[in-house]
Amino acid sequence: MTSSSPSPSLVILTGAGISAESGIDTFRDKDGIWSKIDYRDVATPEGFMRNPARVHDFYNRRRRRMKGIRPNAAHHALARLEAEWKGEFLLVTQNIDDLHESAGSKKLIHMHGELGGALCQACGARRRWPDDMSINSQCPSCEATGFMRPDVVWFGEMPYHMDRIYRALGAAGTFISIGTSGNVYPAADFVVEARHADARTIELNLEPSEGVDVFHQAIHGRATEIVPAFVERLLAQA
Ligand code: APR
User: Fold this and answer.
1) Angstrom distance (rounded) from CA 179 to CA 68
2) Which of 2, 71, 82, 172 is most buried, with most CB under 10 Å away?
3) Ligand 1 pocket member 20 (CB < 6 A)
4) Which CATH number is associated with domain 1-24+71-112+159-238?
């Protein structure tokens, strides 16, 4: 009877790079989303106040685009890891697409909200919203019109579920960051939180992120290649 040490708790952070090979543009790569439109116009509360129709158009295009895409081998590898991992597991994504859910991930937090969700600024109700939204959209709960916004976190707003995320980072045995440039806080600081908890920290990304030097280990390549191989090794060592 060998007393194998329990599998460490895993906390995984993903960013736009994990969805790139499914056909979703990243933000800061060459030809990325922010090279085509100013984030201050479409991803800030001030931009929404100034011109809500432009913001609705930006998210309507991304919501329509989301309908035609499928999870890739990296999303499926993380769903397999969650299903087979013996220890605690939490997947935190910065992405607002639904590819992790489509691949079968369940222990999942969308810290920047979800493109398929709507928030009523009049009554605070949250609803699934698969279709276009406009300044005339009516809240299904309070029936007010003109107060609906995509349930996504804009620059200057507090990401969702931060208490739960920091608790998981404080207890993490291994922290893995996948497909994020490490440009946006608080997500870019998660590796520091994990190191304070003496977690092993690993970056998987196409190229070195802003925070690459903070990680114990870095593996660079395309997510559909390096993530399945990494998951295979992790499960084989468990
Ligand atoms: N495989 C792995 N990594 C990739 C791939 C790929 N096929 N393609 C791109 N990448 C990497 C890039 O090298 C880059 O480091 O993914 C990262 C994407 O970085 P960003 O475009 O900055 O996206 P992200 O880090 O998720 O942005 C964080 O910023 O704009 C806000 O709210 C938005 O959630 C987003 C946040």
Assistant:
1) 21
2) 172
3) yes
4) 3.40.50.1220
